Amino acid sequence: MTGFRLRSAWSWCALALLLAPTTGCQKTNAAADKKAAPPVKVEMATPTEKEVTDFRDFTGRLESVESVEIRARVVGYLTKIAFDPSIELGAEVKTGDLLFEIDERPYQNSLATADAQLAQATARQKTTAAELARTEELVAKKAATARDLERDVGQNAEAVASIQVATASIAQAKLDLEFAKITAPISGRISRSVPSVGDLITPTTGTLTSIVSVDPIHLYFDMDEPTLQTLQKLVRDGKLKGPTEGEIPLLMGLATDDGHPYRGKLDFIENKVDPNTGTIRVRGVFANPKSERGPRPLAPGFFARVRLPLGEPHKAVLIAERAIGRDQGQSFVYVVNAENQVVYRKVKLGSLHDGMRVIADGLTASERIVVNGLQRVRPGSKVERSGVGGQGSGEGKGSGVGAQGSEKAED
Questions:
Q1: Which of 43, 92, 124, 356 would staple 389 via disulfide (CB 3.0–4.6 Å)?
Q2: What is the C-alpha to C-alpha distance for residues 54 and 47, in angstroms, rounded to an integer?
Q3: Do the Cβ atoms of 207 and 70 come closer than 8 Å?
Q4: pLDDT at 79
């Protein structure tokens, strides 16, 4: 038994002697590997600092300021259509332009009849007036009775009323004759003609055509509640001019435009926020002058991108969008310190400006950040520059990140 214990002890000692050098070598090799690991090559850059204006982006639809459906006001056969929108892209008419003409001969006859009735009533009134004067003289001489006087007074009053009826008939006949010519009540772009020449037109026929005004033009969009509150606070603090002091500017671009080339102003905000969507309907107004060739650039129904500037220009720190990492809803950047080590830094994001993201808090313009290769480094990693990652080179442009969707999530 004692011999067995001695052999076991010697076996354990031998095993320990064999393992001891191996473990020591592993530790030495690991330390050597760690020491020999080369720095990770990444693109670095310093943020750009320049003046920017905060804004919010929305989408909306253009609508005409005025829209009119043209209908007939009298009955008659259509004899003339005085416009042809097919000859011009976006044909326009002016207030008072002739659009349709209904056969006016029946209304000319009605006017002539009303004129004759007025002449007849006038002649009768002269006769009754003369008879009334004679009866008054006879009554004064006691040669006529009071009943005779009452009769002549009534006949004269009836004749006067006949004149008034005839006068009203003339006015109505003139109005009907005027309505036989249908003119444009507003200036704007006209639609096609629904009826054809020869059709019987009545007030119940329906819409003959339609006209929409084109200059100026309205833009409607839905503003979110936080933006509305921000806008109101800026006006209260005097950082933004309200409607009574000047104007709240709006910038707009169409689907085919680069940027927002059209400038207008905010001119209406609905009186309450929709509790179901948390938005409020807002309206802007834009000039829409006619171009030298072709139609006006803006038309009712167009989809539009809207940009609402908030406040005055101010200095801001901007970085490329690709330099920003996301971790469970938290935005961060990797800052490179003086020892070329990566430091994790939380940042608060602002709006996009020409593909560059504003950093509202968490970064200064003098610090270096990793702009490419974020997935290859971790906090504490040693890095070195590979290539030039200057912010002014336009990194991040065309990234397809919409400012509106990002700002809502980030603010």
A1: 43
A2: 18
A3: yes
A4: 93
